[in-house]
Specification:
- This protein has 5 helices and 47 strands.
- It is mainly beta and about 700 residues long.
- It has 4 domains: about 240 residues, 6 Propeller (Neuraminidase), CATH 2.120.10; about 80 residues, Immunoglobulins (Immunoglobulin-like, Sandwich); about 230 residues, 6 Propeller (Neuraminidase); about 70 residues, no CATH class.
- A hairpin with a 4-residue loop joins β37 and β38.
- α3 packs antiparallel against α5.
- The longest helix is centred in the N-terminal third of the chain and has 20 residues.
Length: about 700
């Protein structure tokens, strides 16, 4: 992930002594702090140097360009039909604004929508992009139209505009296909399509071109599903299509609005970026040694964490002299300067583990950091699918079929537990919401937006069968409680009145109401998105905090809160940046699959980091269950003996706690003819009762 905002605080010394000495130090500290706040840091990549509100009322600024003849900054508004001109010599200041030839958006369709502006130094003119009309318009510096608009020969909606000074051709972004396209400004024909590297689902709307010794390089704004907004500017070589090591951090733009367009100032490290309502000057300077890029981490829930990155060293193919790995500030390994991944086979079982990957060149270090959760909530896998908006999930463990509804269609996509898509079934319905799978009857149950009916679906063909009323048009998640043979329907009102409706699932009694489930008011829990039922009859439900779904909690079948709580922070900033960051969930073994509705992504999270497979009752870890195991557990409990290498294995009766009942259970099984230890037994395997907070 990208490096985030760094904060700096001066040390304020507090000493004993004379009042005058204390006052002097206090004033000195205050003066130092004042200088720090008022003066931007120099040569700090991503530092916001200046900020200015964009011109006009209710502005929707979308793109910027620099006029080279006088160094002025020109911005275009999406809907007002205005061009804004700013001075860049000294403090940012508005110089002028005027109408451009495309014109303002007109109700009721509010078109045309402008999406780009680019300057041509060869003619001292400007090109404007009308994204709804798919047209290019040329104007002079007074806003006068030059010739008829040019129709772009592309079916995709484009955003952003940049001009290549070497040939005068224009470039724009096709975000639907994650490509940059080169356009002939005379004919509007598409000359080149360049695939832009990155996640299949991303956030971007700006681009510009810089020349490096005559070689054109395309800069583009970028953010992935974990950022949930634009957070940086990356660069790709137009000739090779490969990413360079150039990167500018946009995370220091503290704004509730997303970064739209940007422009580079030639012969300068300054970059100008715009949100809808503000223009920023940002320091785009690059360090002497570039840190590894795209640092990313995944955990497997069985005792390992894998880091991956892209090298940006000065050697061929980005090689450093060496690469150093630190964990929570301590060096844990030094590896080859060409390595692009590393596995930690013994990470601590905790959240907030800070890893640093440091590119070493001589005595210089360039560091990238990532924080990893190797506890409940850790990220194990994800898959992003453009134009798919996963809503709710249901799982058939026999067929290993994970059914996922799409918010805006009647399609149900079917994945395996590895999140590889198997097939798509079309129900012929519209705007699907919740989905549950009844393993006894081999049938799906779905809900729809603005409908109180829930409908049975054939899991193979997608053909709807009968329906029954749910008594609510707000059913957003469905789960099947195999322990009680009941349907559970999550009624999400968006308020503290959200609840789970329990309905009979028995053949012939489908839909008979059996009451509702909600946490007691004294618990302080407010239900939010998602519902999953466990084999023991307990539930996992999304919990709301301050209007945003931030975690999940375990409740009994009656709604009483249990101790298990898991943060959803691993899905990134979507919880704070987007509506519907996640809407449904389903358990598969010791993992939780989450429907990231707003980011078109399925996330696999670790419900519990339980370590490797184990054998129930095998306290000493030798692969056998015998008298020695009972003695081993009792010795640890009462005589200060060594702890078991796997507490889950020592929990012989699987009651979630370690006490005298465990060695007694083992003895009674071995010599008293009592029942054998619960699963996993007699062969090693995963823990089916993984929410007991024990692990290996």
């Amino acid at each position: 992930m990208s490096a985030r905002l760094m904060s700096f605080m001066p040390n304020i010394l507090m000493i004993t002594g004379s009042k005058s000495g204390h006052l002097t130090l206090t004033l000195l500290a205050f003066f130092t702090l004042s200088l720090f706040v008022s003066a931007p840091l120099c040569a700090q990549n991503g530092t916001v140097l200046q900020q200015l509100p964009t011109c006009g009322t209710n502005p929707k600024s979308v793109d910027l360009t620099v006029r080279l003849t006088d160094g002025t900054l020109w911005g275009i508004d999406a809907t007002s039909g205005k061009i804004c001109v700013y001075s860049t010599t000294g403090p940012l200041a508005e110089l002028n604004s005027f109408d451009h030839p495309i014109g303002a958006a007109i109700a009721p369709l509010f078109q045309p929508q402008c999406a780009g502006i680019a300057y041509s130094a060869a003619t001292d003119t400007f090109w404007l992009l009308n994204s709804t009309g798919q047209e290019l318009a040329e104007m002079d510096a007074t806003g006068t139209s030059l010739g008829a608009p040019v129709v772009i020969q592309s079916a995709s909606t484009l955003v952003g505009l940049a001009l290549n000074p070497l040939d005068g051709n224009l470039w724009s972004l096709d975000n639907q296909n994650n490509t940059a396209i080169e356009i002939d400004p005379i004919t509007g024909s598409v000359l080149t399509e360049l695939s832009i590297p990155g996640n299949s689902v991303r956030y971007s709307s700006g681009l510009d071109i810089r020349l490096d010794n005559g070689n054109p390089l395309l800069n583009f704004s970028y953010g992935d599903v974990f950022d949930a907004k634009v957070v940086e500017i990356l660069e790709v070589d137009l000739a090779s299509g490969e990413l360079t090591s150039q990167r500018t951090d946009l995370g220091q733009i503290e704004s509730s609005h997303n970064v739209m367009g940007f422009t580079l100032k030639p012969a300068s490290s300054s970059i100008y970026a715009t949100t809808c309502c503000d223009v920023y000057e940002i320091d785009g300077s690059q360090g002497n040694v570039t840190p590894p890029a795209e640092l990313f981490a995944l955990v497997d829930g069985e005792g390992s964490t894998e880091l991956s990155w892209r090298n940006c060293g000065p050697g061929l193919n980005g090689i450093y002299n060496s690469i150093r790995i630190t964990r929570n500030g301590a060096i844990v390994d030094t590896i080859s300067g060409s390595a692009a991944s590393w596995t930690d086979n013994s990470p601590p079982n905790e959240s907030g583990i800070l890893y640093q990957v440091q590119g070493v060149v001589g005595s210089n270090l360039a560091t990238s950091s990532v924080t990893v959760n190797n506890a409940p909530g850790g990220l194990a896998q994800f898959v992003s699918i453009p134009n798919f908006f996963p809503r709710d999930l249901a799982y058939d463990s026999v067929m290993d079929d994970l059914y996922v509804t799409d918010s805006f269609s009647g399609e149900i996509r079917v994945f395996g537990s590895d999140l590889v898509e198997k097939r798509v079934i079309d129900t012929g319905l519209s705007n699907l919401r919740g989905i549950g799978y009844n393993s006894l009857m081999d049938v799906l149950l779905v809900s729809r937006a603005n409908s109180s009916l829930v409908t049975f679906i054939d899991p193979l063909t997608g053909v709807p069968a009968s329906s029954f009323p749910s008594s609510s048009q707000e059913i957003t998640s469905i789960s099947y409680d195999v322990n009680n043979d009941d349907w559970l329907l999550f009624r999400n009102t968006g308020t503290s009145e959200a609840e789970v409706l329990r309905m009979d699932a028995a053949d012939g009694l489908e839909g008979n109401p059996l009451g509702s489930i909600s946490p007691p008011q004294t618990s302080g829990l407010v239900l939010s998105g998602g519902l999953a039922s466990l084999d023991d009859g307990s539930l996992l439900l999304g919990v709301d905090s301050g209007g945003q779904a931030t975690s999940i909690s375990q409740l009994t079948s009656f709604g009483f809160p249990l101790s298990y709580n898991m943060s959803m922070s691993a899905i990134g900033n979507s919880m704070s940046e987007l509506n519907n960051p996640w809407t449904g969930m389903e358990t598969i073994g010791s993992t939780l699959i989450v429907a990231g509705n707003a980011t078109s992504t399925l996330y696999k999270l670790i419900l519990v980091s339980d370590g490797p497979d184990f054998l129930r009752g095998d306290s000493d870890g030798n692969g056998l269950v015998n008298l020695a195991d009972a003695i081993y557990t009792a010795s640890w409990l009462y005589s200060g003996g060594p702890a078991s290498p796997c507490f889950d294995a020592s929990d012989a009766n699987d009651d979630g706690s370690l006490d005298i009942s465990d060695p007694l259970y083992t003895l009674l099984y071995l010599f008293g003819g009592s029942a054998p230890p619960p699963s996993p037994f007699p062969l090693p395997g995963e823990d089916p009762t993984f929410l007991d907070n024990l692990g290996c």
